[in-house]
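Appendix C: a fully annotated inverse folding record. The material below is reproduced so that readers can follow the format used throughout the book. The structure is listed first as tokens, followed by the designed sequence.
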């Protein structure tokens, strides 16, 4: 045995150690532009690394999850959300003998196309782009990795493997795309199902945490929620003299652990029943095989409804949302009326993409703080010229 572990060894370890329904890097779907394989990284490890080194990945730090970036230093932003999601995805993938690197790559890339100011920004762009081919963050993430990132002399985008790109197509691909997309199948690859579930576990829990920390949510309200009550009961014996912040964190921890454990057990039993013999067979199933149990699914819906009513629609959050919507809408209109105001990298794409798409791409790439500064520069009559 040599000290150096080659790609071929990693690939063989996958063949030996992963389930028959896992996506193997040795069978990875092609990249759009052919490349020679790496000496010691598998196809999916390489994709994960490309995503982490992308400019769009770095911008996630200054994009809102729920609270705008300057509200406080401890709130989640899209980068920390992505990292928390990726960690949960790795745990799930590893436990289910799926390809951890692919699950990680998909999770790290899943929000790259998010607009500034979270879903508020997305809603506005989606409305404005409706007559021009539409907009949603999921599709925009694929556009970022396939087209917007520029880092190679021979091609645009990151040239990711087909499995990673297929895993990002959460809502299908019924739209124009500049690069051929992987063929549509009834289900996402299992590793992408893991990524989707991990994303949900991450945001439900950190939104609860941020909402409590901010005082937008109160502990007493949460007692009505099955998941919270159960998690809180599980830890209460150890928490008698703990500070409220520690109690909150331990409850969130128990809640995540409970959901992840349930997802592993319920998915394992679904996989056992459906018994797909290849990753492709799992994609042809009529339902997702990575999922919560029925009772947890219902409890999860209760929590999501609670967050919608009490957190996302809370007056404090709404005020931010309203402001964000006007910023994104104003920027779009000003650029559309006077395209000469666009910076050079965006104005260069006006002809190639059509003005609306070029403007939507430009705005979608912005961080919250860039959008705020640009709005002030362009629309505030008192701003310095
Ligand atoms: Mg997400």
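Designed amino acids, in order:
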């Amino acid at each position: 045995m040599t000290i150096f572990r080659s790609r071929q060894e990693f690939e063989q370890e996958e063949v030996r150690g992963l389930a028959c329904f896992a996506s193997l890097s040795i069978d990875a779907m092609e990249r759009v532009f052919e490349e020679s394989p790496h000496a010691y990284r598998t196809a999916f490890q390489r994709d994960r690394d490309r995503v982490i080194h992308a400019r769009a990945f770095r911008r996630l730090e200054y994009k809102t999850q729920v609270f705008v970036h300057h509200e406080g230093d401890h709130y989640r932003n899209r980068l920390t959300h992505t990292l928390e999601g990726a960690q949960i995805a790795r745990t799930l993938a590893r436990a289910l003998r799926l390809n951890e690197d692919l699950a990680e790559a998909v999770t790290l890339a899943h929000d790259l196309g998010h607009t500034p100011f979270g879903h508020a920004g997305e809603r506005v762009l989606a409305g404005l782009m409706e007559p021009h081919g539409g907009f949603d963050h999921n599709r925009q993430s694929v556009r970022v990795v396939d087209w917007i990132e520029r880092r190679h002399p021979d091609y645009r985008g990151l040239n990711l493997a087909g499995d990673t790109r297929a895993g990002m197509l959460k809502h299908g691909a019924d739209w124009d795309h500049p690069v051929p997309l992987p063929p549509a199948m009834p289900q996402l690859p299992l590793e992408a199902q893991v990524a989707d579930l991990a994303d949900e576990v991450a945001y439900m829990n950190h939104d609860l945490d941020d909402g409590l920390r901010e005082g937008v949510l109160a502990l007493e309200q949460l007692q009505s929620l099955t998941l919270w009550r159960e998690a809180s009961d599980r830890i209460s014996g150890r928490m008698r003299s703990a500070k409220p912040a520690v109690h909150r964190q331990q409850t969130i921890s128990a809640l995540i652990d409970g959901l992840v454990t349930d997802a592993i057990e319920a998915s394992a039993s679904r996989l056992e029943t459906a018994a797909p013999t290849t990753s492709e067979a799992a994609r042809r199933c009529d339902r997702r095989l990575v999922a919560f149990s029925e009772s947890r699914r219902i409890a999860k819906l209760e929590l999501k409804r609670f967050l919608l009513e009490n957190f996302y629609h809370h007056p404090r959050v709404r005020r931010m949302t309203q402001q964000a919507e006007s910023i994104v809408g104003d920027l779009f209109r000003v650029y559309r009326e006077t395209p000469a105001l666009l910076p050079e990298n965006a104005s260069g794409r006006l002809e190639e993409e059509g003005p609306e798409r070029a403007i939507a791409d430009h705005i979608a790439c912005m961080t919250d703080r860039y959008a705020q500064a640009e709005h002030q520069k362009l629309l505030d009559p008192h701003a310095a010229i």
